[in-house]
Amino acid sequence: MSEWKGLLDGEVVLVTGGAQGIGAAIAAQARDLGASVGVVDVRTTEAVPGIFAVQGDISDATQVRGAFEALAEALGPATVLINNAGRNAYFDPVTMTEADWDEVFSVDLKSAWLCGRAVLPSMIERRHGSIVNVASLHSSLTTQGMFPYAAAKSGLVGLTRSLALEVAAHQIRVNAVSPGYVRTALVQEWLERSDNPNQEAELLGVHPLRRIGTPEEVAQVVCFLASRAASYVTGANWAVDGGLGVRFA
Questions:
Q1: For the domain that residue 178 is a member of, what is the CATH number?
Q2: Which of 34, 43, 153, 248 has the smallest set of CB atoms within 10 Å of its CB?
Q3: What are the transmembrane regions (predicted)?
Q4: How far is CA 98 from each of CA 59, 110, 159, 237, rounded to the nearest angstrom?
């Protein structure tokens, strides 16, 4: 990424779910591109050079307020928010409880609004800001056995479009990135749950690029959309899926 050196100079980038996987890759890349970076995660985060970490549950409004106040005090007002935190869901639609439903949507959808609400006042005041929501290929295509993940991620794309229109007059951009299969802990969990011993080989076979992505490849797209280089992009949902979403089964 040497050709992008300084792409995020002067930006204060906050990443939710930044302790591992795609979130950790986004935080590291934003730091390397010149941003001041903070992460908030429900897990404890080991000290990473150049990244300020706060522990908190981003589905809880009180904890969001406290975490984002701590991040702003340490780094200054946020100019970029990356709503990356999420969770998989493997429920039967009949036996799933209301508590299960509420937990999925609190993490995968409600949290994006709570975190956006926390940073938007300062962005509006400065007429500068960018929000990138990490959705999923499941927002447009899905598979059996992951109910109601697709519903939550579809809602996140809808939130992206709606929020983009609400804040555009303040020169704030809101976009989504929809990764396909990426080699993260969540995807590894899904592979290990499969009863099919050939699951990974079959998975690679349906990808036009014959491989699945890396967290760093998603991070590159996220950081571009977050930057001034994408200054005329808002309300968009960019697929980062190795072409999986454009082929017939």
A1: 3.40.50.720
A2: 248
A3: none
A4: 16, 15, 22, 29
Q: How many domains in the chain? A: 1
Domain contains 246: no
Q: Which of these, 21, 131, 146, 37, lies nearest to 85 by C-alpha position?
A: 21
Domain assignment present for 193: no
pLDDT digit string (tens) for the chain, length 249 residues: 567 889 999 999 999 999 999 999 999 999 999 999 999 999 987 778 999 999 999 999 999 999 999 999 999 999 999 999 999 899 999 999 999 999 999 999 999 999 999 999 999 999 999 999 999 999 999 989 999 999 999 999 999 999 999 999 999 999 999 999 999 887 888 788 888 999 999 999 999 999 999 999 999 999 999 999 999 999 999 999 999 999 886
Catalytic option among 90, 149, 181, 232: 149
CA-CA-CA-CA torsion for 75, 168, 59, 121, nearest 10 degrees? 50
Q: In whole angstroms, what is the distance from residue 171 CA to residue 185 CA?
A: 36
Enter the pTM of the model: 0.95
Evaluate whether residue 76 is within a structural domain.
yes
Question: ∠182-184-187 over CA atoms, to 5°?
Answer: 75
| Angstrom distance (rounded) from CA 64 to CA 102 | 17
Domain that holds residue 22: 2-182+214-239
